[in-house]
Amino acid sequence: MMFNSHKPRINRFLAADGKCLDVAIDHGIFNEPSFLDGLQDMAGVVDALVKAAPDAIQMNIGQADLLQSVAGPHKPGLVLRTDVGNLYNPVTHAVMYDQLVHYDEPIIGALKADAAAVVVNLLLMPGQPDLHRQSVLNVGRLRAACDRYGMPLMVEPLVLKSNENGGGYQVDGNKRLIVSLVRQARELGADVIKADPTDHADDYHEVVQAARCPVLVRGGGRKPIEQVFAEAAAFLAQGAHGLVYGRNIYQHPNPARIVAAFMAMIHDGADAEKALAIYRDEA
After folding, report:
1. What is the rounded distance in angstroms from the CA atom of residue 51 to the CA atom of residue 209?
2. How many whole angstroms separate alpha carbon 110 and alpha carbon 238?
3. How many CA atoms lie within 13 A of 5 on its CB side?
4. 89 exposure class (CB count in 10 Å sphere: 0-12, 13-18, 19+)
5. Smallest Cα–Cα separation from 10: which of 93, 110, 106, 115?
6. Do residues 156 and 48 make contact, with C-beta atoms less than 8 angstroms apart?
7. How far is CA 144 from CA 3, 153, 157, in A?
8. How far is residue 162's CA from residue 159's CA, in Å, rounded to a whole number?
9. Which of 14, 24, 33, 44 has the smallest set of CB atoms within 10 Å of its CB?
10. Residues 6+ positions from 228 with CB-CB distance below 8 Å
């Protein structure tokens, strides 16, 4: 049987059960001030997360040294973001873009930082076909580089809708559009997919089926903790392989308790009630 060259790295961020909690703290690259609440002291954030021990931490090349300078083998895997864009600002820009941070050698930073995987957006926005084209090219370029060097590729398909009142864009939970874009991500060669939640959690098995690879559910903006656990449990019950949560962890007063609860949900099958008990340290 032919050796699967990306398997050694993928084993460093997907646990032995094939599941994963990836804590995203890569928000600073998008130049959106509201994302920085809770991320001002990156060294402190990384130190706290390493102690909390999720499966992976999602970062950018300019901060990855904080994780990879931790001594010893027992630390979360590094998932390195490879693109930057202006899609998260609360205004619609005249020119929307998403481009690779290192265009000529798109994963050289990930190799030097000993990343376990790289992640890139696949974007679908109303009236922005060129943005979709840009992101398709990004995925294709990364796929070729990942094949060359044995690097797992995580693709983040984002279906967004116009927000006429506030400017900018909001997540679109339309199942039909999400399934289609997830399928495109897989067709382009994704090894792992970080997908938005659908409007109705009961539909999420269709997203998992379209992916035919591990699917990690994207968390999005800050919500009440009871809602966070209830939603996560519902999507995990539909076959999702884990979670990629950022603001609902790092903007919380006690990120370590959130991580402990999520890890129990993902790897031990804890339901939302049990997760809430772990979070409250009542388990």
Report:
1. 34
2. 32
3. 8
4. middle
5. 115
6. no
7. 18, 10, 18
8. 10
9. 33
10. 219, 245, 248, 258
Split the chain (283 residues) into runs of 10 and give each run's mean pLDDT.
75 96 96 92 96 97 97 94 92 90 91 97 94 97 96 97 71 95 98 97 98 95 92 98 96 93 98 96 70
The total of other beta-carbon atoms located within 10 Å of residue 65's CB is 13
Q: Which residue has the tokens 């990120």?
A: 255
With tokens 């983040």, the residue in question is 156
Cα–Cα distances in Å, from 190 out to 45, 136, 141, 154, 215? 29, 12, 12, 6, 10
In this predicted structure, what is the pLDDT of residue 103?
A: 81
What was the pLDDT predicted at 167?
64
State residue 196's pLDDT score: 95
The β-bridge partners of 158 are: 123
CA distances (Å), origin 150, targets 30, 52, 235 = 27, 29, 30
What pLDDT was estimated at residue 89? 86
CA nearest neighbour of 96 among 106, 105, 84: 84
